[in-house]
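Slide 14.
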Amino acid sequence: MASLALIHQCWLEITKQPRYQDKWLSDECYFRAIKAQFPSLESIGFNRALMNRAFSSIEGAVLDDFTESNTAGRFRRSTKGFDSFGNPRRTIWGYFITTPGGLVKRPPDGKKCFLSLLEDTRINDRYSVARGLPEIVDLTNEIAARSSEKRRSDAQTLHLMNRKGQSMVPFQGKW
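Slide 15: predicted structure.
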């Protein structure tokens, strides 16, 4: 689950760049941008399927909501077909990012209608690296460090409560 959260966080960092906003882009376009900007993700087996799973598990139904209740400003749609990168027939996920609270009209049904909305060709490979973003190589270490700090803090709290007689839970942590 931590790897899915990490991938989702990297996607959010990428989508802060204006060139990835206010247009329909395919999952392949985001996959290439994230892979170029965050090469450390290869150590966790980063691929397009894992990326789509991360988006679905963390934001799921919010991405499919084209009403005012979607305050995140992130939308998705899927269809089957060939993407603009020459990948074989597959399920193509398209994502639209607006400013938070922005709305986008639900794209029409039908493969050809939706595929014609994708603007992947406007983002060439030379722009796939989101310049200006710091490399998040150590984000996994940072997440692990925060988790251990939280566990240590919880253990200290339990110890103090145990000393005051507020809890029957014995302290088992190391200082």
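Speaker note: The chain has two domains: 2-129, 138-175.
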